[in-house]
Amino acid sequence: MERKHVNCATCDIACQLVATRDGEGRYSLEGDYDNPLAPGAICAKGKLAHEIFEHPNRLTQPLKRVGERGGGQWEPISWDQAMDEIAAKLSDVVNKYGPESLVVSSGPWNCSTESGMTRRFMNLLGTPNYISPVALCLGNTAAVHRLTYGWLPAPDYEHTECIVLFGHNPHKQSWVMEYIRIRLAQERGAKLIVLDPRQSQSADRSDIHLPLRLGTDAAMCLGWINVIITEELYDKAFVEKWTVGFEQLKERVLNDYSLEKVAAITGVDEDSIRQAARMYANAKSAVIPWSPITDQQNSSTSAIRAQSILRALTGNLDVPGGDLLMGINPDIVAESALELHEQLPLEQKEKQFGFNEHPVFTYNATEKLRKPSLRVWGTEYPNQVKGTCMAVPSPTFRAMAYGDPYPAKAFISIANNALQGYANQKLIHDALMNQDLVVCHELFMTPTASLSDYVLPGDTWMERPNLHDAFEWFSLVQSSQQLYEPVAECKNIYFFWHELAKRMGMEDYFPWKDLTELYDYRLAHTGLTLEQFQGKYKIKIAEVKYYKYQETGFATPSGKVELYSSMLDDWGLDPLPYHRNSPEPCQTYPLKMFVGVREPQFFQSGQRHVKALRKSNKNPKIFVSANTASNYALVDQGWAKIETINGRIRMQVMIREDMPDGLVRVPHGWWLPEHDDLGIWEHADGILAPDTEEYLDREQGIPHLKGIPCRVSPIKSATSWEAL
Ligand SMILES: Nc1nc2c(c(=O)[nH]1)N[C@H]1C(S)=C(S)[C@@H](COP(=O)(O)OP(=O)(O)OC[C@H]3O[C@@H](n4cnc5c(=O)[nH]c(N)nc54)[C@H](O)[C@@H]3O)O[C@H]1N2
Ligand SMILES: Nc1nc2c(c(=O)[nH]1)N[C@H]1C(S)=C(S)[C@@H](COP(=O)(O)OP(=O)(O)OC[C@H]3O[C@@H](n4cnc5c(=O)[nH]c(N)nc54)[C@H](O)[C@@H]3O)O[C@H]1N2
Ligand code: SF4
Ligand SMILES: [Mo]
Known about the structure:
The protein is of the alpha/beta class. It has 28 helices and 26 strands. It folds into 4 domains: 3-53, ADC-like domains (N-terminal domain of TfIIb, Single Sheet), CATH 2.20.25; 63-140 and 329-541, Rossmann fold, CATH 3.40.50; 154-324, 3-Layer(aba) Sandwich (Dimethylsulfoxide Reductase, domain 2), CATH 3.40.228.10; 591-715, Beta Barrel (Barwin-like endoglucanases), CATH 2.40.40. 31% of the residues lie in helices and 16% in strands. Helix 4 (117-125) links the parallel strand 6 and strand 7. The radius of gyration is 24 Å and the shape is globular. The protein binds ligand MGD (2 copies), iron/sulfur cluster and molybdenum atom. Residues 107, 109-111, 133, 136-137, 292, 415-417, 420-423, 441-444, 446, 458, 460-461, 595, 604-606, 668-669, 685-686, 689, 705 line the site of one ligand MGD.
């Protein structure tokens, strides 16, 4: 029986799978027990990959809009015609408005890795306006980490004694790889501390669960820092030698964040806060894995900075069992290196939307960190998780919709349901409708694709070879062998950029005939071709070196861990972490909602078309406690209208014991492939999420999805999932 190894890219955690071929040439998929990190990891979405991608809804040829944008009428055309017309229209826009008028939104997870080709094209054309949903997930975390110690670290689960999860709740159907690593660590005896307003699965398995209020993670961290400094639990030698700003930090927490105040903000009693802080600080080693929960709050920068500071104070940076600064992977040419950021002139970088207002993940920060990055990591533009030199989504959509501060008139969406992947869907809709050109590279007719002028059919992860380098975060390369030829006219993202580059005079910069040649190039220094590498390695983990900073210092302006951030200071922003209140419930909107709690059946806005998955989760559901339900006349399985200052949607009601009173959980990413209009305005969380300044993190400009005042009321309704 022929076996191949693949990386599932149905979600973003990249489980290593074994693919076994049957007599008819079809492969079945299983978790791989040889994987040293997470043996056997696989979930239902991985197992059912064929049902997801071989669905009749799959796009199989390029489509051109006929009639009104969003009118649902399409003409099938050839790739040549599509690319000729896209190149001509893009050239018109660039000639009329300048290269910066092209915006690209790219969801890097599913198409990983696109080998940096998107930014390469953009940099050569001259536009800095790349946005990505990684602005709300990990990419922004990477950028915030760089302010403090220059690099996004990865948790050493295999050796750690203590794990702290901020919300974060991996389980058997959500990020199985990480779930297994955490469970194995717990089996070895590692302690687990979980901070979550809800009684999540992680909370069930924890040693300490702190049920903090929504959006108060930064305040909680400041409370921990207070305990750690007051009780002298910090690593004095490390703090003295390797940090700057300890005295200012100490003053901040002692003056402004007494435990009494932190308890009042977070709703958790002082003793529990103390106990948790002690458990973390006294552990021989400890990790605070990245969590998307702190990426999506109006104190996000402060929360992430405070977590970074906790790691540094307790001496858990780049030590066995701590959070590791892994650096550039030696085995493969990094995507960042292929992106050619040095080719984009500074005057173009400065035009990036959000550059001055919310600088943290824009080129504004990248430029300040060029020299330190070069000194420590040997590269000026490490673009970890593709999140460290992005435009800010909200100002970008405003420019697209209203032409302020300058017009943005062409939009390309790649493997991303942009209409639903950010806050304020109405604004994004207006932005798309105001474009001269909208192109979408997709597998399915998503809401975003439905508003495009050209929809281009993508291949799936089973139909292309891949090398997954963990977004330059972990120092490893996983190899994924191609199982099938792409269906019909489906093509990968490299093909798209290559064809566009050819038509726009940039062919010399895209010399590789196809993905295989591109990967051969990225591996050339190892002496192996893609095929040889894949034959030799399923996963190649680079040797881990600890304490690297002792030789190089940290990649920050001072070369130290900046507890007090010189970059935030330069920008006139608060150089120390702080808690910022978010809008509170009021008479009109008496409850608080948050977006989240991942659903086992789906990855983000995907898979709603797959009967085998959808049948166990037919309709989007809010979670509320029994008290909240009875206070607002909601019944279990009945329907409710959910309203915020930004808009309203409807969802089914689920009464759950794990929900505290007064909170409403709204799931992310719902649309209805079975409806003619795709149900774009029915259930999307982005309709509810505002993006006015009070709801945006000051430093990054990302939206507050964890605590939006709302109201709920019962309604009669039904959806028609049976039409699938
Ligand atoms: N409003 C709101 N916005 C959010 C979030 C939220 O909770 N609320 N969550 C944030 C988070 S945590 C994340 S990770 C991001 C997720 O953002 P994305 O990863 O962009 O996820 P989706 O928006 O679901 O879009 C992914 C699209 O890629 C398509 N696709 C899958 N595989 C391929 C492929 O191989 N090729 C091509 N061309 N297309 C492919 C899928 O069909 C799908 O439509 O969104 C962020 N944005
Ligand atoms: N099946 C499946 N798995 C997935 C995904 C998917 O779409 N489907 N998406 C993947 C992606 S891209 C991501 S980013 C992850 C996200 O996965 P997680 O990080 O686990 O995020 P959620 O499941 O949204 O929420 C986790 C917990 O955060 C709590 N929470 C909500 N608000 C707050 C707050 O303000 N503070 C704190 N401390 N906790 C809060 C919620 O109660 C919930 O229990 O899941 C990944 N795994
Ligand atoms: S968790 Fe599931 S969907 Fe995600 S990579 Fe693993 S098998 Fe695929
Ligand atoms: Mo995410």
